[in-house]
Amino acid sequence: MGLFSQKGTFKKLTEHITNVIVGNPNIDENFYDELEESLIISDIGVETTEHIMERLREEVNARYITKTDDIKKTLESIIAELVDKGERNRFSRENPLVVLMIGINGGGKTTSIGKIAAMCKKEGRSVLLAAADTFRAAAAEQLEIWGQRTGVRVIRHQEGTDPSAVIYDGIQSAKANGIDVLICDTAGRLQNKGNLMKELEKMNRVIDKEYPEAARETLLVLDATTGKNAVSQAKEFSQITDITGIVLTKMDGTARGGISITVADEFDLPIKFIGVGEGIEDLKEFDPKEFAGGIFDE
Fold first, then answer.
1. pLDDT for residue 2
2. What's an example of a GO molecular-function annotation for this chain (predicted)?
3. Is 264 annotated as a binding residue?
4. Which CATH number belongs to the domain containing residue 278 in this structure?
5. What is the per-residue pLDDT across 60-94, written as a single tens digit (0 to 9) for each?
């Protein structure tokens, strides 16, 4: 049994699809209509659903599939292909590395930072955190708690100060101490999209100027339980800055699972991590084949 199915990640998605297959022993237009509806209900976007259905019809015709029992493996293959972005799915192992974590407040950004820090330390990489979300009350304190849990130092300034100044100090400290990975928290206020864009642009300019030799990751953290709202956030943040990967949080029960497929397909964004629980090691690197196979694990 795959990691994702063990954690209940695809319970809703699996239930919807299985119900359609059980209720329709033959492949006909009624089956296609119900399957299409089940995909949309499972938080897969309309555009991606149409893409999946078009591919499915092509496979059914090309391979002379006549029974719905044979549909599962075909769907699994189609979905695996949609979410597989090759090497782009892999989190950078280059050192030094600067990671900008972006996403709205409440989506699991700070928790994800702590978990990525723990993962990097487990791999033998040295880590430093920069608390550049200086506008949200207690943001730095929350990051400090994760720093203590993981044994990682946190660079922070007073609340309300320039976020880019924190990034600057983080870079100087990382360079002076030979740190492998600098992970930077950022503010996430989409209602002030113009200000957020300027902040991120300034942060990127500071990194470009002060640390041009560093590899870069800009990871967007999305709460999978918010479904189509998370898709909207992916669209908004994609317009604000270049994103190298997605971290999907809270994929451990109530999420339907379809958002992951939509984000990967409609925005061509690689998923790098999936949060499958509350524990410090419950952030797993994304495996497209395991992911797709987990949908239909019994």
1. 46
2. GTPase activity
3. no
4. 3.40.50.300
5. 999 888 877 788 888 889 999 999 999 999 999 99
Q: Is 295 annotated as a binding residue?
A: no
Q: Is 189 known as a binding-site position? A: yes
Residue 78 is labelled as binding a ligand:
no
Whole domain around residue 278: which residue ranges? 87-295
Residue 18 located in a structural domain: no
The verdict on whether residue 105 carries a ligand-binding annotation is: yes
DSSP state of 67: B
Q: For position 66, what pLDDT does the model report? A: 80
Judge whether 252 is annotated as a binding position: yes
275 marked as part of a ligand binding site = no
Known binding residue 104? Answer is yes
Position 136 in a domain: yes
CA–CA distance, 20 with 163 (Å, rounded to integer): 50
Half-sphere exposure at residue 182, Cβ-oriented, CA atoms within 13 angstroms? 28
Torsion angle, CA of 50/55/59/61, rounded to 10 degrees? 60
74 domain-assigned: no
Total domain count, the chain: 1
The answer to the question of residue 122 being in a domain is yes
Q: Is 188 annotated for ligand binding?
A: yes
3-state helix/strand/coil string of 101-125? EECCCCCCHHHHHHHHHHHHHHCCC
Judge whether 125 is annotated as a binding position.
Answer: no
What pLDDT shows up at residue 7?
45
Asked whether the beta carbons of 15 and 256 are under 8 A apart, the reply is no
| Residue 124 annotated as binding site | no
Q: Is the pLDDT of residue 253 over 70?
A: no
277 labeled part of a ligand binding site: no
For residue 163, whether the previous peptide bond is cis, meaning omega lies within 30 degrees of 0, is no
